[in-house]
Amino acid sequence: MSQQPVNRALFDEVMVPNYNPQQMVPVRGRGSRVWDQEDNEYIDFAGGIAVNALGHAHPELVSTLKEQANSLWHLSNTFTNEPALRLAQRLTDATFADKVFFCNSGAEANEAAFKLARKYSYDNFGPEKHEIIAFYQGFHGRTLFTVSVGGQAKYREGFEPAPGGITHVAFNDLEALKAAISDKTCAVVMEPIQGEGGVIPADPEFMKGVRELCDQHNALLVLDEIQTGVGRTGQLYAYMGMGVKPDILTSAKALGGGFPIGAMLTTDKVAPSFGFGTHGSTYGGNPLACAVADKALELINQPELLRNVAHKRAVFIEELEKINARHEIFKEIRGDGLLIGVELIDSMHGKAAAFLAKAREEGLMILMAGPNVLRMTPSLIIPDEDIRDGMKLLDSAIAKVVAAEKAVA
After folding, report:
1. Has 282 been labeled as part of a binding site?
2. Is the N or C terminus of the chain more exposed, i.e. has fewer CB atoms within 10 Å?
3. Nearest CA to 264 among 69, 31, 102, 71?
């Protein structure tokens, strides 16, 4: 039996159609550059959706993975292992947390966080205190529980009945939260910056108000830092620059620098509710993932690297403003650090995908955050030259989309 060519067409034959990937197939990457099967070169402003925080094939991550692969891959949680212990120690030393739970993804980290919040309230206040409050346009994963806590109905449609005891209120609206929270609330769940929802930052005073309301009602504050964590905002975690500490924090994406891993961080006060046998993960905390994540965290949590995120952002903003001066296509540029959202003007709402596709044709990889917002989550160490070269490609892509729109108007 002859082997079928591996190309984009094969995706449509053998893969479940829940994704619609771009037509090219990347085969290798180095730093912030990627090459496809035809050896076409691309500048990467997507970063694997905020995952490749140190770019592609970072030599120290590659070396760490090879070294660990030659010693120990997997054990199961019947045993612990040295990389997991080292990573947990590094995380607790660097954050508010006292305890860590490892898993494989952001959705799994959030699933664990939401279960822990309910279990803690059950243990300490009884079964009536089980309600979770989250925010419209939030995104917390694709499991049935996490997609239900997420505030975007389109991701729940067709999968009902969804888990109950979940309420959504408007983001950055403290009065709406005050009206919803009660002594039955076990947790308030939020992203410091809503990523999938359009790159919407939480107002610092709003976040402080959320913390105060949680304290008043004996509710836990759960921060989803899947996208904002591990240097993305120029802080190791975004909460560190907002004057608020959570009770539970979730981390993934950049934590492994490209190797799948998730983590839920919490305090000595809350952790005992996950006693023996209450939750688990076969692969969670495996030596390969933890060794790579430990090295990624070591490299990223350096003052010079974190400070330089602000400089990289400034270069992005400068170049985006130049593009907007030429094309008048952006309504707002927002976010923090290297989580950048660019909302299109009203007349271009719904057309973000067209800009993404044209950018890819020009040799630039970018993202969307809904149909109206272009999103950029590049490597934290992307060279300034790559930023400026990529912006030239974006300028060309925008010019072509705008011209096409005018031609059919």
Report:
1. yes
2. N
3. 102
Q: What is the 3-state secondary structure (H, E, C) of 61-82?
A: HHHHHHHHHCCCCCCCCCCCCH
Strand order in the sheet with 26-30: 26-30, 33-36, 41-44, 364-365
Number of structural domains the chain divides into: 2
Residue 340, classed as helix, strand or coil, is strand
Report, as residue numbers or ranges, the catalytic residues: 139, 224, 253
Cis status of the peptide bond prior to 161, with omega within 30 of 0: yes
Q: Residue 109: which residues within 8 A CB-CB, separation 6 or more?
A: 101, 103, 226, 250, 251, 252, 262, 263, 264
232 is in an annotated binding site: no
Mean pLDDT lowest for which of 49-53, 73-77, 369-373? 73-77
Burial class (CB in 10 A: 0-12, 13-18, 19+), 71: exposed
**Same structural domain for residues 248 and 328?**
no
Is 228 annotated for ligand binding?
A: no
Domain contains 184: yes
CATH at residue 27: 3.90.1150.10
pLDDT tens digit sequence for 305-336: 999 999 999 999 999 999 999 999 999 999 99
Q: What is the pTM of this model?
A: 0.95
Q: Specify the CATH number for the domain of residue 230.
A: 3.40.640.10
Q: In 3-state terms, what secondary structure has residue 280?
A: coil
The response to whether 318 counts as a known ligand-binding position is: no
